[in-house]
Give the backbone structure.
Amino acid sequence: MYQEYYFMTNIDSSAIIGNGVKTQESTVIEGDAKIGDNCVLGNKVVIQKHAVIGSGVTMEDGCVIERKVNVGNNCVFGKKVIVEGHAVIGSGVKMGDDIVIEKDTTVLDNATVATGTVLPAGKTFPDGITTKAKYHPS
């Protein structure tokens, strides 16, 4: 037997959503999250409880922003970027695809994080030593 599943955007009633925010299929925004104005959230993006997303942020498909993460204004996230709890992402940050920002990590304003990068827990990027690439695109 064939079943069809319809995925819908799920925004908790306690979340605060700014003006002009665009969400796609299967976007989830949990309780007490705050999303600034003019953000674009792709398919299957998850914003967990108490996360704060600045204005003008774009997140492509499959991004996960865990609890108590703070993302600055005008950031661009590629596909499948995971930002673990209590991390801080500065304003103007650009990230490629398949990135993991581990817990308690700080990414400074206007930094560029390459595709496939893992930033270790509790560090500040860029500082010249924190990047561990999982693979190098050819």
The chain is about 0% helix and 35% strand. The chain has one domain: 10-131. Residues 94 and 112 are 5 Å apart (CA to CA). Confidence is low (pLDDT under 50) at residues 1-6.
